[in-house]
Q: What sequence folds into this?
């Protein structure tokens, strides 16, 4: 069976994606439940402080992760399944599925180090009070 | 050659033969002291016999050297040989009545077998002349006599060596036929000079075999000369070799089975074992006595009885002195007859179970030196027709050389087809450890190989076996097909451990002193050495019945023309065979005092001196001082020495302490020469506590046990200490715990003022006590636990609470104050109910503490279950400056993982009641039990720092709750053991 992969590379720029790989789990607070939509996971920052290495920081909850960008050995495609709706022969290809390339993944950002706990500001205040 | 089950007639004949002999056997018993009577007796019976003498030229020895036919000379010589031979045979008979039970019958039967075999061998000529069945049918005394003559004749010369008992000489005729001529002592002693008469005894092999051999050679030479010259006159008597130069030990070594000094029972069993090889080695089958044969035996026993009586009468004429005893004897024999036959039956039945060769392939004789183990092995093997091959300690005993040697002996038939089979005697197999081991290994390997092929052997029919035997031997080269006798001094030598399981073991017991003394006396008489019985017995006792050293000593003294002195036995004894005794013997010697009945004070002193020397050499030879002293230490208190003021005991313990410190010093500084001071210490103790009675010695196990226990308890303590919270364990070493704290701690744990009632019935004070106790137990990680129902006695000890399973302290620290099994400590035990309450409380407390620490780690997930709590926390933040409020917070937090309900309850309380929360705390608590702890917590946690921490926690959680998603880091795995220890714990 032939699967058509549709790509609009020639027309414009193919969007580049990236994988964020974490050693760990991102969990929702138990109070939130299953409603995950619209929640902000965290903040991913790219800081090109040093000349050669570009370091990424990812802040989730009260953890700050630091990672680096790595090239994948084999690039991946992100595809989107589409019902084929070609006007030419609708009878024949009605059941066929068309895949559209949404993005190409060539890099991943790997956070493999132990997360740094963010010291919250109120605590600092407390200390001040204590002193 | 095939052997059938003997017919009834044959057996009758046998029996008549055998039963004739007991009376004749009498001579053996009265042989040593009254020689004159014996000789006179012989003279009466055989007037043609010249007085028996030993040396001299036996010109007419019945050795057919160059005669064309074998049977011819036999017949011609017969008149002369037979009576003598008969006499000689009498000597060789076992002391018929001295043995007891069925085993007595055995050698006789065997000899009968030999005779019969011999007869059948010669069947060509002699069979016709002496048709057996006819003779046996007659069954009367004269006939029996004839048969004895027959047997004797046929045993003298035979084509097969094993049929001849004792020494034999191979003779080859001109026709190429080879026969073996028996050398009888009386034959040698026919003609001789009177001068040598003093040395001669008429019956026994009066001279050592080597002498006889030498003389035989000389005789053969003389014979040859004689025949070539045709004259008898110029024959010169070869000079008697200097017998005196020979060791008495060899000279008077027992040459026949009956002369053995060792225990009769052992002798017979060894012989029986050797005989079991017959079927394997000689190819003949073991006979089974069938029932009809047995009945025939019984039927004829009565007839033989009468015949016996006739004989007795006949003897009575000759030597009237022993009529009565003989009559007694014969009646006894008659009574025993049936049991004999039964015994025989059993014996043979047992043997016939063994298919081919005995079950145990190896015989292991052990016992102290000088008792005649080697002699027994040699004599028995010779008696059964083997040639003895001895491997001694002095031979090369490396594993490879020994293997080839054993294989040679055990598997190869001798190159000459008619030579005797060999029997291997490995002397002093325990001697050198490394070398001996090789030997043992080889033997074990062969035995194992034998076992493997035993299975297929079982099915082969016996007839086929005879044919197959040689081929089989060829196929399976490692099979053990010849008897192997091993001799050792110490049965429990480590090298022999495996052999012991495989081999048939016979322990040699010491013969009685009187027996030794009799023999010694006899030898002394023969040698013209004047001694007294007392001196001899003293000698025998000193050497512990080591007849070899006795004889050596005597000969030495004789040579020096000295007289054996009772008092100087120890100085006169030249040397004993070097040996080290087992450690048990050493202990026994230390605890055992020699009975000093006779002798005055001077003698006593001397004996004491001697004892000391013996003991010293014994202990220092053994060498393992540590073990020796251990054994003494553990055993000496069990002795029943007279010591009302405990002085001896104290002194002994003192000495033990000294030797212990000496030992320590020696091991520390490695100055082994100082060990030489150990034996005197032991001897001193021995002087203090040794008893006449036989000590009951046990192997010292206590040291080992204590060591194991120490290790176990140390482990226990270590594990326990690791479980303690660091704030406690860092202040307390294991040692200080055991030495100082255990007892007070146990006292605290079992405080008597606790009542096993429901908690809410306790007064405030009691609640406090309980809380404190639980706190202590948790802090020291002690709890109660259900004991498994293992040791019954323990349950019995706690008999009051036997219905429920008793509770014990979990690290059994109460064991540390119990030094002995039955020791009851002073600490009062809590009642079972109280223990259960405590167990419950401690468990609860522990869970609480765990959860507290978790919540302090901010790792609890359950604490933020409802969003409502955030609000309450928010309120708390507002009031966090209030020092009174925070403890309640804390208590809430402690509870929070416990149950959500509790928490809500708590928070609700906080939100509702601002300042006056004391009342709700006591009233609204869901669980009454826990109230105590919270009270306590409230009291304790008044400090500001705690407040700060708690507050910080609050704010942190608030902060955290503002974020919807959290990251949870997955840790990798390591092998290291991680245990969270907080600084806070250390700072407490």
A:
């Amino acid at each position: 069976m032939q699967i058509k992969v549709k790509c609009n590379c020639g027309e414009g720029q193919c969007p580049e994606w990236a994988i964020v790989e974490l050693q760990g789990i991102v969990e929702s607070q138990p109070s939130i439940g299953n409603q995950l939509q619209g929640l902000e996971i965290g903040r991913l920052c790219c800081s090109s402080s040093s000349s050669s290495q570009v370091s990424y920081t990812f802040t989730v909850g009260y953890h700050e992760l630091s990672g680096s960008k790595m090239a994948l050995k084999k690039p991946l495609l992100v595809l989107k399944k589409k019902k084929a709706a070609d006007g030419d022969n609708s009878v024949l290809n009605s059941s066929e599925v068309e895949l559209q390339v949404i993005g190409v993944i060539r890099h991943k950002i790997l956070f493999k180090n132990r997360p740094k706990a963010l010291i919250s500001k109120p605590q600092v205040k407390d200390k001040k009070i204590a002193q | 050659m095939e052997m059938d089950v003997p017919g009834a007639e044959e057996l009758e004949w046998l029996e008549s033969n055998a039963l004739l002999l007991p009376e004749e056997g009498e001579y053996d018993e009265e042989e040593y002291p009254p020689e004159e009577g014996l000789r006179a007796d012989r003279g009466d019976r055989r007037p043609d016999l010249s007085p028996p003498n030993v040396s001299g030229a036996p010109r007419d020895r019945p050795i057919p050297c160059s005669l064309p036919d074998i049977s011819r000379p036999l017949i011609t010589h017969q008149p002369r040989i037979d009576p003598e031979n008969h006499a000689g045979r009498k000597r060789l008979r076992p002391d018929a009545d001295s043995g007891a039970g069925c085993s007595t019958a055995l050698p006789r039967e065997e000899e009968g077998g030999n005779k019969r075999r011999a007869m059948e061998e010669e069947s060509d000529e002699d069979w016709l002349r002496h048709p057996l069945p006819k003779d046996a049918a007659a069954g009367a005394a004269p006939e029996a006599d004839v048969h004895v003559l027959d047997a004797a004749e046929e045993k003298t010369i035979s084509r097969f060596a094993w049929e001849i008992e004792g020494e034999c000489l191979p003779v080859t005729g001109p026709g190429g036929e080879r026969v073996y001529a028996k050398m009888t002592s009386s034959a040698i002693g026919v003609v001789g000079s009177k001068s040598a008469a003093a040395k001669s005894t008429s019956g026994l092999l009066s001279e050592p075999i080597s002498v006889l051999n030498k003389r035989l050679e000389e005789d053969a030479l003389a014979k040859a000369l004689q025949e070539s010259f045709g004259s008898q006159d110029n024959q010169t008597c070869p000079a008697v070799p200097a017998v005196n130069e020979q060791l008495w030990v060899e000279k008077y070594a027992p040459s026949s089975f009956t002369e053995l000094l060792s225990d009769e029972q052992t002798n017979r069993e060894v012989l029986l074992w050797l005989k079991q090889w017959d079927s394997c080695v000689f190819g003949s089958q073991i006979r089974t006595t069938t029932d009809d044969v047995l009945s025939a035996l019984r039927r004829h026993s009565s007839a033989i009885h009468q015949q016996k009586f006739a004989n007795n009468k006949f003897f009575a004429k000759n030597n009237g002195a022993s009529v009565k005893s003989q009559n007694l004897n014969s009646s006894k024999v008659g009574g025993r007859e049936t049991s004999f036959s039964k015994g025989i039956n059993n014996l043979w039945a047992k043997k016939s179970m063994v298919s081919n060769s005995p079950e145990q392939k190896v015989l292991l004789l052990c016992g102290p030196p000088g008792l005649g183990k080697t002699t027994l092995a040699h004599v028995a093997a010779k008696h059964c027709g083997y040639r003895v091959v001895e491997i001694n300690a002095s031979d090369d005993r490396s594993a490879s050389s020994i293997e080839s040697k054993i294989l040679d002996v055990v598997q190869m038939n001798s190159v000459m087809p008619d030579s005797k089979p060999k029997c291997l005697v490995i002397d002093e197999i325990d001697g050198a450890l490394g070398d001996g081991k090789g030997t043992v290994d080889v033997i074990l390997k062969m035995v194992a190989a034998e076992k493997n092929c035993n299975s297929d052997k079982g099915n082969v029919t016996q007839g086929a076996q005879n044919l197959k035997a040689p081929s089989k031997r060829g196929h399976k080269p490692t099979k053990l097909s010849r008897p192997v006798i091993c001799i050792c001094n110490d049965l429990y030598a480590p090298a022999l451990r495996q052999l012991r399981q495989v081999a048939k073991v016979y322990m040699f017991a010491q013969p009685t002193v009187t027996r030794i003394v009799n023999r010694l006396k006899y030898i002394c008489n023969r040698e013209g050495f004047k001694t007294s019985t007392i001196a001899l017995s003293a000698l025998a006792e000193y050497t512990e019945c080591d007849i070899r050293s006795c004889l050596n000593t005597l000969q030495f003294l004789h040579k020096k023309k000295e007289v054996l002195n009772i008092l100087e036995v120890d100085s006169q004894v030249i040397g004993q065979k070097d040996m080290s005794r087992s450690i048990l013997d050493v202990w026994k010697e230390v605890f055992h005092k020699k009975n000093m009945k006779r002798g005055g004070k001077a003698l006593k002193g001397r004996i004491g001196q001697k004892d000391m020397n013996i003991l010293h050499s014994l202990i220092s030879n053994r060498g393992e001082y540590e073990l020796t002293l251990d054994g003494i230490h553990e055993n000496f208190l069990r002795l029943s020495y007279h010591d009302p003021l405990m002085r001896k005991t104290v002194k002994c313990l003192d000495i033990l302490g000294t030797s212990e410190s000496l030992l320590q010093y020696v091991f520390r500084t490695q100055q082994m020469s100082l060990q030489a001071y150990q034996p005197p210490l032991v001897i001193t103790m021995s002087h203090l506590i040794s008893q006449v009675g036989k000590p009951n010695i046990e192997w010292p196990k206590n040291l080992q046990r204590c060591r194991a226990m120490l290790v176990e308890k140390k482990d226990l303590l270590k594990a326990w200490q690791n479980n303690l919270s660091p704030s406690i364990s860092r202040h307390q070493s294991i040692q200080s715990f055991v030495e100082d704290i255990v007892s007070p701690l146990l006292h605290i744990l079992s405080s008597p003022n606790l009542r096993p009632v429901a908690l809410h019935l306790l007064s405030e004070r009691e609640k406090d006590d309980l809380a404190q106790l639980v706190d202590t137990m948790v802090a020291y990680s002690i709890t109660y636990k259900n004991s498994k129902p293992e040791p019954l006695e323990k349950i019995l000890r706690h008999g009051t609470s036997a219905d429920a399973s008793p509770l014990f302290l979990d690290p059994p620290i109460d064991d540390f104050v119990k030094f002995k099994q039955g020791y009851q400590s002073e600490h009062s035990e809590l009642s079972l109910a109280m223990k259960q309450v405590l167990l419950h409380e401690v468990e609860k407390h522990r869970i609480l503490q765990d959860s507290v620490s978790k919540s302090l780690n901010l790792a609890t997930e359950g604490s933020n279950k409802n969003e409502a709590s955030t609000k309450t926390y928010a309120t708390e933040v507002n009031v966090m400056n209030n020092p009174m409020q925070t403890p309640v917070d804390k208590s809430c937090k402690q509870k929070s993982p416990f149950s959500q309900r509790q928490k809500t309850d708590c928070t609700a309380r906080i939100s509702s009641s601002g300042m006056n929360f004391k009342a709700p705390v006591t009233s609204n608590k869901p669980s009454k039990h826990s109230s105590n702890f919270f009270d306590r917590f409230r009291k304790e946690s008044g400090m500001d720092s705690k407040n700060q921490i708690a507050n910080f926690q609050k704010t942190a959680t608030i902060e955290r709750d503002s974020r919807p998603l959290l990251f949870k880091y997955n840790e990798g795995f390591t092998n290291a053991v991680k245990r969270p220890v907080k600084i806070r714990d250390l700072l407490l």
Q: What stands out?
A: Chain B has a mean pLDDT of 63. Residues 323-353 of chain B form the longest helix (31 residues). Chain B has 41 helices and eleven strands. The radius of gyration of chain B is 46 Å.
